[in-house]
Write a structure and sequence with these properties.
The protein has 158 residues and is mostly helical. The chain has three domains: 62 residues, no CATH class; 43 residues, no CATH class; 45 residues, no CATH class. It is built from seven helices and no strands. Helix 1 packs across helix 3.
Length: 158
């Protein structure tokens, strides 16, 4: 096999691996592309060619200078844009739940309306019922979560 063919096969394999992880939500903060986005021809099945096309599109979007390669800066910018989009969706969902006066902003009193959830989390971590959380209790709560943050990886549950 010649060197070009080997490198091409490796690039295809890496692209499929990356987009498969992308489709599972791996390495993207749990965000997954819609099935309909991957199923470009709409036939109810996603082929490897469709996965590759999706990966190519994502690559091309990240390659802002169009040179066919991704610099560290381009990769950071692409990841930052993804994180910003996720954060905006989460904030909008939070506003939908908590904005009691429906003015598009969140006042402290509206946040306090969700204090029952916070109190329940506090009580769960305060295992000795002392009304305070010791360093040991905080460490135990973190350990119980497997050292990870809350659902989605960006909020702390404890």
């Amino acid at each position: 096999m010649n060197k070009t063919l080997i490198l091409s096969a490796l690039a295809v394999a890496l692209s499929i691996t990356a987009v498969t992880a992308d489709a599972r939500g791996g390495d993207r903060g749990g965000e997954r592309p819609e099935f309909s986005t991957l199923d470009a021809d709409g036939n109810g099945e996603v082929t490897q060619a469709e996965m590759l096309a999706f990966a190519q599109t994502r690559f091309d979007e990240a390659d802002t200078n169009g040179d066919g390669s991704l610099s560290v800066e381009e990769m950071i910018a692409a990841r930052s844009a993804d994180a910003s989009d996720r954060m905006e969706r989460r904030i909008n969902r939070m506003l939908e739940r908590a904005d009691a006066n429906d003015n598009g902003t969140l006042e402290f009193d509206e946040m306090r309306q969700n204090s029952d959830r916070a109190a329940a989390r506090f009580e769960r971590v305060d295992t000795d019922g002392s009304g305070g959380i010791s360093q040991e209790e905080m460490d135990a709560a973190k350990e119980a979560r497997g050292g990870r943050k809350g659902k989605g990886g960006d909020r702390d549950e404890g």
